[in-house]
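Quick illustration for those who missed Monday's session on complexes.
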Amino acid sequence: MTDFVVRPITDDERRPTFDLLGQALHSPQLSDETWAQIGDSWAAPGKFGAFADDRPIGITSGFATTIAVPGGAVLPAAAVDGVGVRADWTRRGVVTALMSAQLNDLAERGTSLACLHASEAVIYGRFGYGIATSGATVRIDHPARLREGAEAGGAVRLLDTGEARAQLPALYQRIGLHRPGMIARPSLWWPIALNRRLSREGGYRVAVHTGPNGEDDAFAMFKSVDQSTAADPERGVLLEVRDLQGANPEAIAALWRFLLSIDLVATVSSRFRPVDEPLSVLLTDPRRARTTEVEDDLWLRLVDVAGALAARTYGPGEPVVFEVDDRLLPANRGRYRVGPDGAGHTDAGADLRLDADTLAMLYLGEWRASTLAQAGRITVVDPAAPARADTLFATGTRPWCGTYF
Ligand SMILES: CC(=O)SCCNC(=O)CCNC(=O)[C@H](O)C(C)(C)COP(=O)(O)OP(=O)(O)OC[C@H]1O[C@@H](n2cnc3c(N)ncnc32)[C@H](O)[C@@H]1OP(=O)(O)O
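Prediction with acetyl coenzyme *A bound:
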């Protein structure tokens, strides 16, 4: 029996659904003052609510963006930025109904992909989302210095809060979506992100790098965390770097040099960095930089499998025929031939069979088909096909999202 309804939310339901999400995520109660600053960013379009007796019991929110895919194409995507069910309604199919409504709506609108960051890794696979990028936590202990020639020169300056709000959106846009998995940050993303980080409680500061050509080309947000304890009062500050973006490797290196030069710092740390960022080899002493964790970052969902497969480029070699199953969006079911010349529907027999979530793991180049076949996530019909698929889907750089939403 269905005892709740799922439908798009109205303008009047924005605040109640935001509060519902906050409670599901154990966030502090939002003040009216903060809502006045960020409320416009929680716009009704793209949000589905579940309602019992006209009261919200569940929410899924998505905003429209674009995402870079291998080969450089940029596709329309939904960034699913808030999913929550009221604690007295969980495990009764509410989020299943919300996911179905949202994905069918995106398919009707011609959105190619949906993506999210998952609070728990057991939730979204059943809805066709797969881990499509990973992020590394890096830790650099002082003293650490960059090698000569690692960066292109230029200058770094600190921004005040007003300058950061005014300058960062255009700077991120200029930096561009240069890795598969990077997403555009629409204007509604910035108030929520900056409010959280640049407030007194957030405590982040912003550094911007200007390249030798006089143009700003990189920025970083960072804050100081006191590590001293009664037992170890001399332990220096930890500098936590949150959002480091740059147009090219030299600009990114220049910001690392700046961050490593700040006085009274014992350690510089950053979560969700690209796993192939060459930090240790930038340093005179490579052992000063350590990767302490690699974790799942962006979860991707191919909403339009044919369109998404056709939009990316592929490596050399013999084609592979994939048979895709998709329980939530059955229009995606079928066989697709993927080769160096592109991808599209085919009547040819399948070489590999897989579900939508596993296809999402392959799509940006994060996982090898051979690995997923060994793990039993791909059914192998032609034993030579996983190796061929490895070559076809391989990318020059690892995919990376770099934007939290
Ligand atoms: C993108 C983001 O916003 S990530 C944030 C996600 N939100 C949160 O973590 C907030 C706290 N949690 C919640 O609000 C809810 O528990 C949700 C959204 C995770 C799940 O909502 P529910 O309505 O309980 O999910 P629903 O009842 O549709 O469950 C579907 C299936 O997933 C399983 N499932 C759902 N959540 C979980 C979980 N956290 N752990 C294990 N299994 C889960 C259910 O057991 C069920 O399995 P079944 O089909 O085999 O019976």
